[in-house]
Specification:
This protein has about 300 residues and is mainly α. About 75% of the residues lie in helices and about 0% in strands. Strands 1-2 form a two-stranded antiparallel sheet.
Length: about 300
């Protein structure tokens, strides 16, 4: 990296102190890409403009940091609208019932179901890539394959980050980390191997399958029970289905208990939405820790 670019990035990082780590990563990547390409154009044209002229065109670290902070305040993190401001803190009962109309809860619930398919896909890619990398590393084609696999992992991490941001409302990087195309192959490989986020992304892909199984199973069981209880007046009272069968004997719910079953199903559905929001928040913090480059 050009010495002046490195100093600029350190100044920009200092100016963005306190901002979201994903915002800092995007800002540093954008700045490095713009400055590096600008210097390459100057070298190709033979004009050799001073670095201060390139900075003046792009903006000082303080100006760029202020622009990113302003952009973050205006850009929504996810597809659902922010909650409308309210006077005072709503009561516990209102917060409990309000989840029924909270799009964030439904988005998190959708992520719990989608996590199983994503987890299987991610695990397959990571396991296949790791096993082939270890098997081919002794051959001449092994090193290019390993490099390609690590680059693919970085791309998948960005895609997963966008999914997490859209469904769970956690700010994630919106572009891959910039790596100069003109770098020598050994330096490019060194960047991939020395970057902590490369290996944490691989670990994230591997762990996503067991997490997806847990998320999917928990969400499915809770929804099945809640909808079964909700539909109990129809299933048990009208159609006449038994509550269960043990030892050849069928057990039925008395008519007076059917409304209580329906109410219990509705409450369980609300608890399921709260559970989805909580798991979504926890997983979002976990994804940020694993997929965002530490500054």
């Amino acid at each position: 990296m050009h010495k002046d670019i490195g100093e600029y990035l350190e100044a920009l990082k200092a100016a963005l102190q306190g901002a979201d780590p994903a915002t800092i990563q995007d800002a540093l990547s954008d700045a490095e890409e713009h400055l590096a390409l600008a210097l390459e154009r100057e070298e190709a044209s033979g004009t050799q403009a001073p670095f201060s002229a390139v900075v003046a065109e792009y903006g000082s670290p303080d100006e760029v940091a202020a622009a990113y902070r302003e952009l973050e305040s205006r850009t929504p993190v996810s597809f659902y609208p922010p909650a409308a401001p309210r006077d005072g803190r709503p009561s516990l009962w209102k917060r409990f019932l309000g989840v029924a109309v909270d799009l964030r809860a439904y988005a998190a619930l959708f992520y719990l179901f989608a996590s199983l398919a994503l987890g299987v896909l991610y695990f397959t890619i990571a396991a296949t890539g790791l096993s082939l990398s270890l098997g081919l590393i002794v051959l001449i084609v092994g090193l290019p394959f390993v490099v390609g696999f690590l680059i693919a992992v970085r791309g998948i991490a960005v895609v997963e980050g966008r999914i997490v941001e859209a469904l769970l409302g956690v700010r994630m990087p919106r572009r891959p980390v910039f790596v100069r195309k003109g770098l020598a192959w050994h330096r490019r490989i060194g960047v991939l191997f020395s970057d902590r986020s490369t290996w944490t992304a691989i670990l994230y892909l591997v762990l996503m399958m067991p997490l997806g199984i847990v998320y999917f199973t928990a969400a499915l069981v809770l929804l099945v029970f809640s909808f079964t209880f909700l539909a109990s007046p129809l299933l048990l009272g009208v159609i006449g289905l038994p509550l269960g069968e043990i030892g050849g004997r069928c057990y039925f719910v008395p008519d007076w208990a059917l409304p209580l079953c329906a109410i219990g199903g509705a409450l369980l559905f609300l608890l399921t939405l709260h559970f989805a929001k909580w798991i979504g928040a926890v997983h979002g913090r976990y994804a940020k820790a694993m997929l965002v480059r530490s500054s």
